[in-house]
Structures are given as C-alpha cells and as structure tokens.
C-alpha cells in the first residue's frame, strides 16, 4: 500500500488530533470561551431568579398592562394616571424621539455653521467659533443641562414679569410661550402648500437637469426652490381667506393660557443637547472640508468654476464622504445623551422607565426596555446611514 | 540687466496692522457684515457679564443677604463652600489625604502622557500609584484613620472613577479588540456583540443596571457597595470604547508587519506582544486620551444614582438653607475645574497626534 | 511685433515680508512657447499662477489677451476661461469619472449641452491616447494617464493659453515620456500659446521658442534654447545648468 503511493498522488498526511494543529486549537479556544460565557450567564441568571423569589418579585411583562397611577408632565399623546404602564412607556419613547429629532436637525444646522465659521478668513469669526467649540466640548453635558435649567427656572422672572421678547412670545421660569395657529382651514391649506412645494421642487430639479443636458442652459434651481417653499404656503393661506387670528398666550392669574409651550425641562434639554452636539459636529464638518485638498479648489478655479459651483460640484461631494460616518456617531450620541433628561425631569424613556421600575420593582424588565429602545434606535440609525453611505459611494465611485 | 536687485520691503498697504485688519476683518462686504455683527454681539454680552461677575459681585460677604445686595455674582459663596465642593463629606481635618491622592492621580496621568515613560515603567507607575491612592483614601494603616468610601467625594472621587475606570478597562479593551479581529467565529461574534451592545446604549442605562441589577446577580448574602457598582459600570462601558480605539490602531498597522512577524516564526502571542501591540498602542494614545476626557466628563452622570462626585457635591452645596440660590456661581466654578482638566488634556493629545504623525512619516 | 497675448509689467509680489517676485517683466507673443526653469523656490510657480490669478500680485500689471487682471471677478472669470492650467499633482476630481472630469467645465462654465461636451471630451481623450479609460475613476489610472487626463481636461475648455507647472516632476521616470509626447504633439500643432515650467531640457530644445531662467524671484536670463544651453551668460545660470545636466 505504502509503495503504491510513490508514483500516485501523495495522500494527505494522516490527520491526528494534535495540540499543534491550529484548527484543533481554534476549536478548543472557542469551546472554552463559549462554555465560560454560558457558565457566567447561568450563574448570574440563577442567582437573579433565586434573589427574586426571595424578595417575592415576579418576572415578566404583565405589569405593562396595569394602571400606572402617575402623571407625566408633558406628552405628545393624551396620558393620565388611569392609563397603563405600556402607554406611559410609549409616551417616554415619543418624548425621546421628539427631542432627538428636533435636536439632530438644529445641531446639524448650528454645527455646520460653526464648522464653516472656524475656517473663515475673518479672524474674529474664526476665533469666536474656536472658543465656542473648545468651551462646549470640555464641560460635561450634564453640567451644561443643570446650568441651562438653573438659568431658566431661577434667573428668569415669574409669569407676571415674563420677558416679552417678540410680540406674543413670553419667556418666564415656566418656560417659553409662543403663539400657535388656531384651528383654521387656511393653516391646513398652507401646510398642504408646503408639501406641494416639495413635490414641485423634485420636478423642477429633474426638468432643470434635462434642460441643461440638452441645451447647456442652467436653470436657477435654488432661487426657484426657495420661492416655491415660501410662496406656496403663503398662497394656501391667502386662498383660505388669510385669517389673522392666532392663539396668543395671555396672562391669566398666575400663569399663561393659550399658545404653545416649551416647558423649561424640554427647553433646557434641547438647548443643552443642541449646543453640546453642535460643538462636536462643527469639528466633524471642519475636518471634512479640510480633507478636500486645496488643489481641488485651484483646479476648479482654473477651469473657471465659480466659488459656489466649486463648493457644490467639487468640494461638498468629496467632504460628505468623510463627514457622514462621524456625523452618524454624533447623531447616535445625541440620541443617547437625551437620556440625561432624567436629571432635569423631562419625561423621556429613561425617566419614565425609571419611575415604572421604582413603582413596580420590575428592575430587570425596566432596564431591558430602556436598553432595547436605545439598541433599536442605534441600530436603525446606523443601518440607515450605512445604506446612505453605500448609496453615495455607488453613485460616485 | 543681470545685476541682482535688492529684496525690497513689501509696500506698506500689504503688511502691517492696517493691512492685517483689512485682510482678516473687512476683506469683503460679507466679511464686514460678519465682523460688525460679532463685535455687536460681544458688546452686548461681555460688559453685562463682566459687570455681573467682577464689578457688582461680592467676594467677601459673610451672609447670603449681604452677598445678594450688590446685584452681581456671589463668589463669597464659593469661598464658604469650596472644601465641601472639592472634597465632599470626607472628614474635614483629613482632607489633605484626598488632596494628595488627587495630585498623585494627576501626576500619573501626566506621566502616561510623556513618551519617555512609554515602557515597562508605565504599568509599574500605575499599579504603585493606584495602591498609594487606595491607602491614602481608605487609610486604616500607617496610623491613618479609616475612612469608608461612602464618605469619599468631590474632585478626587471624580478622578478616581475616571482613572480606575480607564486603567482597568484598558486590558479588557485590548482583549476585546484582539477578539474582534480574531479568525475564530465564536470568539469574534461574542466580542462584536459585547462591543456593539454597550456602544448602543447610554452610560446612564449601564449605571442603572449596575445599581439595581448587580445586587440581584450576586449569590445570596453577598453585596457590593454603591461606589463599586458605579465603578464596575464605568469599566464595562469604557472597555467597549477602548476596544474600538485599539482596533483602529491594529488596523493601521500595515499587513507587512504581521507577515514579517509570521516569517520570523513568532507565535501569535509573541507577534502581538513584541511587534503589533507596541506599534498599535502608540498610534492609539491620542484617541485614548480623548476617551479619558470623555470618561472624566461622563463620570458626572453618577450623580443620577446618588454618588458623591464633584457634580453631586456641588449640588449638595446648593441645598444649604442659609445660602440659597447661587447655583449659577457654583456651576461656573465647577465648569472651570472640568474645563481646565479637559482642555489641557485635549491640547496635549492634539500635540501628541501631530508629533506622532510626523514621526510616522520619517 | 504684434500685441503680446500675455504682458507682465514690473510685477512684484510678497508673501508677508518675503519678496517672491521681483520686478518681473515678460511679454509672450501669440502662439509662442516658453519654457521656464530655475532652482526650486525661485518663484516659477508663483509667476505662472499669477497669470490666471490663483495668486494675487501686489504691484505692476498683468494683461492677458487685452484684459488686465484686477480684483474684478468678471475679468478673472473671463481670463480663466481663456487659460488652461496643468498642475504638478494633476488635481483631478477623484469623485468624478474621467469623462465627467472632462465635461465639468464645458457644461457648467461654457454652458454646452451634455452630448456636445461629451463628444469634445472623447475627441481630446483620443488625442491623449486613452479613450478607453473614459468611464474609470482617476484613482484607477496610473500617474502618466492621470496627467494626460488633466491635459485633456484643460484642452476641453478650448483655451488660447496653456500653463504647465512641472507636469512631469511627480511622475515615475517611465511615464514622463508619454506625457511629454502629448505636450510635444500639442506644440507641433501650433497656434497654442504655452508657458511650461519644467526641467526637461530635451523638451525645451525641441519645442521652446524661448527659455527663461529664474532665480530668487527674478528673471535672470532669457534666450533661444540653442543659445541658452550652449552659451549661458549668467554664472547662476551656468551653475544651475551644470547641476541639471549631470
Ligand atoms: N502660500 C505661500 N505662503 C508663503 N510662502 C510661499 C507660499 N507659496 C510659496 N511660497 C514661497 O515662495 C517661494 C517661491 O515658491 P514657488 O513659486 O512655488 O517656487 P518654485 O515653483 O520656483 O519652486 C518659495 O520660497 C516658497 O517657500
Ligand atoms: Mg513650483
């Protein structure tokens, strides 16, 4: 047999189980790691179950359907003590999403402005934005939240002496009161006009590109777009009869009635999150712009492109690629940081879940809910951003 | 024609302060508008602030009423309370101990920032330093009075939570990073799950978890105190972030280095210990400093589970009924403390980054 | 002599306190081909970059095709449309394909229809002998190919003047020739005014009408290539030539 193999193909050396075989080692290592993790998990779970049974705490999510018995300071949907814990948690979730979405939009705008300002040729602007970024980034967010909250609740006058910044806008230690549109058909029309404008802009962009491809003539897309965005809602409002009445907040007794309210908690949280995150976004934007070499500007100028064309056609597409991954993590950070709401009493998901777990003793379930919420938010933002990243990478590469 | 002409000075309109002002402040209509706007903003904000903080303020008042009389800031309040804010409830006459501990911790951080300590002496400095800090804080030996850790507080506690957090999380982070880059699917998956799970949730949920769930995790009869629970949460949290930073460093090492080590016949452990990690860790020092800054700021969240760090002691100082309503002053005071620490560290890490970057090119 | 297409009169420029261009006088005739050489840091790049106002001069006059360069944006745009520039490091736009790099200027600056711009682009890509690379991205090309794309990109704007700033000095030796061949072809076609900063003396001999030597911000010597190389007048020129030719 052994002789037969001499002129045939060499048979694979016989495999023996040996510690020197990398595959064997790898399997052993992995098995050990898995066993360790399972063992630790089992140890923790069994301890927990034992401890819970001693304390007479039942596990499970049954408590969610029980009556909550507490009130929530602000809520986008109707909520009262007679509603269930499940609904309370939904309110918390909606509050988290509300502050995160508004925060992300505002922080992006402010951060982009500051980031560009840091690169300004104007010495004063560049220095001011540098100071802003350095100060904001080097002080804990929680401290900033306490600070803004203290300024609103302690340093602002009471409702009777409220600062009347603009007609109808009152700032007091009860928050910010602004006029709200009344329930009128014209306002619905205006909102409809806004949506219509967005649809029209999509068509205008398409048309402009086609026309430019065919005739070379560029179409003033930006001016048309802005005109549509402003004009259509006004048109809707006019068609609806141009009502002038607004629900203006009025002082009645010790507080305001009417209008829309920004509570001190929401205002402080939003303000703090936006200012803080904008400091980080500014750095992201700055490094994104700086990642595009000066040679690109020069080559574009040498071709005769204007500054704004260069920015739009050459610089932005390149820096967006650098900017988007760190920008994503800033958005995630803002969302996670909104959990500091609990410290100033804004009823976000953490704060509501915390109240729930204190009332029911369902600690594990409460924390699981918090973590599940944040994990799914984080996951969906990063999935979306990955998709977007691939999308622009494909279009351009 | 070929006689070399002298180097002439530039025309005066293109240099000098006037040219500078024109170039850097008024070079275009937009720039002029921006300059005017910012000057206006500064004029609106700065004088009232200076008036409040320095002119109408009181530095020496003995009582709250006296302090408020001027209508400005009440810095006398800080004078009254700074020991409480800085050291929390630590026994008054023993407060030199946390002071020395804090200085020691700062010195250790500074030493880790200096390239000439980047060798075996660094772990020795850390282990030794942390032991001395523990002895100083707890006492009970060498004639020092025993102080239980429920009495610790203020700045030293903030420093301890951040430093111990990062120092202990560091080896965990390296293991996680190596695991995430490993070719063994089970280990890789476990590491990825841990890292992404932790990075997906806010620190506060980890703090809640450790404060309400850790006691349930332990066998009956065992208990761990609140401070340790918070410290564990910070360590678990920091490890995931350190892992990602270290992974970045590992990825930056060119493939040739791995191949070179393999071709010398080094084992996996030798390859990592002798070739890859020394290079990777050097690259990641600046981002690690940034992580430390983040940890330093993030420890302020422990107030939410009632631990007596700098932030909490500041809040407690505000509850004195004799001195009510000076929160802005206190917040500014501790903001300055946090800022000084974080800013100097971030400047340092930027310098380091520049130095390391040029070092790599050569 | 007819009216020169480029006139530099007593041009001076400073970077802060540093006097980079000293009293530069230069007339370039229509269709003339000039090679500029000189030691590194002598101000060659600065001088040709002043011609399409990538740099601003502080004293003197620069007149290109009858238009003086001032702070007037209209004039600057008009001049940049007439003047093409090729950079040492190519400066192609990495996020656009080769074809898109070539059509960008014609579409957005010259307002040409896309189809026409693409046809022109393909014509020039054939001239620089890489039509098959049209759909690729710059990062996928070799240095020599990238520089040829950059030349084609400038030509697509149909310029009257071409400026080259050391177009071959960032290239590996084996790629220098393919770029020089394209430039020689362009020169031999005639009609194009060219100013080329280069140390390729073979190229200078072959196509230049005039060679200019700069040192420390000044034009030290200028002459026909034959005279310049065989009989340099200034000792700094002699020193430079001895260093470059050996
Ligand atoms: N933006 C700038 N700021 C300050 N000095 C510069 C700048 N650009 C170039 N210089 C200096 O001007 C001199 C001439 O530069 P350059 O025209 O690029 O020289 P060359 O192209 O002949 O090598 C060099 O000494 C260079 O250091
Ligand atoms: Mg040069």
The major β-sheet of chain C equals: 6 strands, mixed
Structural class of chain A: alpha+beta
Please tell me the overall pLDDT of chain A. 84
Q: In DSSP terms, counting alpha (H) and pi (I) runs of 4 or more, how many helices of chain A? A: 12
As an assembly, this protein is heterotrimer
Biggest interface, residues from each chain? A-B, 54 and 54 residues
Please, could you describe this protein's structure?
The complex is a heterotrimer of chains A (397), B (362) and C (246). Chain A has helices at 22-54, 85-118, 123-137, 141-155, 185-215, 221-239, 264-290, 294-303, 307-337, 341-344, 349-360, 363-396, and strands at residues 163-166, 169-172, 175-178, 180-181, 246-247, 250-252, 255-257, 260-262. In chain A, strands 1-2-3-8 form a 4-stranded antiparallel beta sheet. Chain A is of the alpha+beta class and 397 residues long. Chain B is mostly helical. Chain B has 14 helices and no strands. Chain B has helices spanning 16-25, 29-55, 64-69, 75-87, 96-112, 121-138, 154-180, 185-200, 203-217, 226-252, 255-263, 268-298, 310-317, 327-361. In chain B, helix 10 (226-252) packs across helix 12 (268-298). Chain B is globular and about 70 Å long. The mean pLDDT of chain B is 82. Chain C has a 6-stranded mixed beta sheet with strand order 6-7-8-3-9-10, with helices on both faces. In chain C, strands 2-1-4-5 form a 4-stranded antiparallel beta sheet, with helices on one face. In chain C, a hairpin with a 2-residue loop joins strand 4 and strand 5 (67-68). The interface between A and B is large, with 54 and 54 residues. The structure holds adenosine-5'-diphosphate and magnesium ion. Adenosine-5'-diphosphate binds at residues 15, 18, 20, 38, 40-46 of chain C.
């Amino acid at each position: 047999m052994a002789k037969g193999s001499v002129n045939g193909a060499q048979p694979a050396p016989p495999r023996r189980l040996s510690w020197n075989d990398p595959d064997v080692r790898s399997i052993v290592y992995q098995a050990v790691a898995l066993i360790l993790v399972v063992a630790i998990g089992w140890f923790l779970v069994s301890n927990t179950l034992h401890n819970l049974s001693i304390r007479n705490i039942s596990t499970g999510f049954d408590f969610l359907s029980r009556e909550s018995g507490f009130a929530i300071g602000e809520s986008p949907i109707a909520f009262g003590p007679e509603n269930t814990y499940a609904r309370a948690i939904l309110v918390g979730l909606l509050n988290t999403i509300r502050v995160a979405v508004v925060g992300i939009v505002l922080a992006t705008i402010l951060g982009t402005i500051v980031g560009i300002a840091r690169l300004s040729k104007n010495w004063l602007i560049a220095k001011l934005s540098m100071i802003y970024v350095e100060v904001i980034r080097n002080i804990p967010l929680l401290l900033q939240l306490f600070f803004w909250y203290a300024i609103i609740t302690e340093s602002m006058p009471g409702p009777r002496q409220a600062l009347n910044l603009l007609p109808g806008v009152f700032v007091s230690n009860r928050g910010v009161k602004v006029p709200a549109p009344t329930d009128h058909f014209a306002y619905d029309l205006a909102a409809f006009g806004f949506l219509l404008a967005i649809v029209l802009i999509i068509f205008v962009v398409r048309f402009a590109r086609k026309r430019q491809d065919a005739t070379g003539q560029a179409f003033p897309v930006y001016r048309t777009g802005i005109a549509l965005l402003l004009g259509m809602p006004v048109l809707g409002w006019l068609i609806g009869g141009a009502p002038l009445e607004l629900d203006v907040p009025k002082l009645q007794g010790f507080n305001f009635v009417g209008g829309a309210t920004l509570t001190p908690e929401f205002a402080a949280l939003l303000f703090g999150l936006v200012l803080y995150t904008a400091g980080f976004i500014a750095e992201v934007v700055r490094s994104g712009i700086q990642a595009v070499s000066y040679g690109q500007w020069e080559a574009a100028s040498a071709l005769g492109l204007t500054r704004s064309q260069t920015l739009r056609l050459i610089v932005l597409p390149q820096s967006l690629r650098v900017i988007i991954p760190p920008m994503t993590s800033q958005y995630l950070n803002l969302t996670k940081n909104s959990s500091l709401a609990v410290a100033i009493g804004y009823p976000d998901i953490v704060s509501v879940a915390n109240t729930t777990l204190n009332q029911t003793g369902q600690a594990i379930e409460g924390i699981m809910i918090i973590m599940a919420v944040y994990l799914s938010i984080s996951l969906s933002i990063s999935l979306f951003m990955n998709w977007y990243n691939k999308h622009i990478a494909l279009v351009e590469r | 024609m070929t006689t070399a002409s002298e180097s002439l000075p530039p025309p005066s309109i293109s240099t000098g302060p006037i040219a500078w002002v024109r170039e850097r402040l008024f070079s275009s209509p937009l720039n002029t508008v921006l300059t005017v706007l910012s000057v206006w903003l500064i004029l609106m904000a700065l004088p009232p602030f200076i008036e409040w903080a320095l002119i109408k303020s009181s530095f020496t008042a003995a009582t709250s009423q006296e302090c408020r009389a001027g209508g400005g800031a009440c810095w006398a309040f800080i004078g009254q309370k700074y020991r409480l804010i800085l050291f929390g409830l630590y026994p008054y006459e023993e407060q030199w101990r946390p002071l020395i501990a804090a200085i020691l911790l700062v010195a250790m951080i500074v030493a880790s920032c200096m390239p000439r300590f980047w060798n075996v002496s660094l772990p020795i400095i850390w282990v030794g330093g942390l032991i001395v800090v523990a002895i100083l804080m707890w006492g009970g030996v060498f004639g020092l009075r025993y102080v239980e850790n429920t009495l610790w507080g203020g700045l030293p506690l903030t420093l301890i939570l951040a430093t111990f957090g990062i120092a202990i999380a560091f080896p965990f982070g390296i293991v996680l990073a190596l695991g995430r880059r490993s070719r063994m699917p089970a280990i890789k998956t476990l590491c990825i799950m841990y890292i992404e799970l932790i990075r997906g949730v806010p620190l506060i949920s980890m703090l809640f978890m450790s404060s309400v769930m850790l006691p349930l995790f332990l066998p009956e009869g065992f208990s761990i105190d609140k401070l340790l629970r918070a410290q564990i949460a910070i360590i678990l949290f920091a490890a995931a972030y350190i892992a990602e930073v270290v992974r970045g460093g590992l990825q930056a090492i060119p493939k040739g280095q791995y191949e070179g080590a393999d071709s010398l016949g080094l084992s996996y452990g030798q390859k990592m210990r002798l070739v890859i990690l020394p290079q990777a860790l050097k690259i990641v020092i600046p981002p690690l400093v940034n992580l430390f800054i983040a940890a330093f700021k993030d420890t302020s969240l422990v107030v939410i589970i009632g631990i007596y760090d700098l932030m909490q002691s500041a809040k407690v100082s505000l509850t004195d009924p004799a001195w009510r309503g000076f929160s802005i002053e206190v917040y500014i005071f501790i903001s300055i403390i946090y800022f000084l620490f974080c800013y100097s560290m971030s400047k340092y890490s930027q310098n380091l980054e520049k130095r390391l970057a040029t070092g790599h090119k050569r | 002599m007819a009216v020169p297409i480029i006139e530099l009169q007593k041009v001076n420029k400073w970077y802060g306190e540093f006097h980079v261009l000293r009293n530069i006088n230069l007339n370039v005739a229509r269709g003339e081909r000039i090679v500029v050489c000189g030691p590194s840091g002598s101000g060659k790049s600065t001088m040709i970059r002043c011609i399409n106002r990538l740099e601003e001069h502080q004293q003197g006059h620069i007149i290109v095709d009858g238009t003086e360069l001032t702070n007037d944006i209209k004039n600057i745009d008009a001049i940049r449309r007439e003047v093409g520039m090729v950079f040492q490091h190519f400066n192609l736009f990495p996020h656009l394909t080769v074809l898109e790099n070539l059509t960008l200027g014609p579409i957005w600056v010259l307002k040409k229809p896309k189809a026409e711009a693409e046809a022109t682009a393909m014509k020039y890509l054939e001239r620089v002998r890489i039509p098959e690379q049209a759909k690729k991205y710059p990062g996928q090309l070799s240095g020599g190919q990238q520089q040829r794309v950059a030349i084609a990109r400038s030509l697509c704007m149909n310029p009257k003047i071409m400026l080259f700033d050391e177009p071959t000095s960032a290239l590996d030796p084996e790629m220098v020739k393919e770029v020089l061949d394209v430039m020689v072809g362009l020169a031999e076609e005639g009609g194009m005014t060219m100013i080329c900063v280069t140390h390729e003396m073979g190229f200078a001999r072959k196509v230049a009408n005039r060679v200019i030597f700069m040192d420390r911000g000044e034009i030290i010597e200028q002459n026909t290539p034959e005279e310049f190389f065989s009989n340099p007048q200034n000792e700094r020129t002699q020193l430079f030539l001895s260093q470059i030719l050996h």
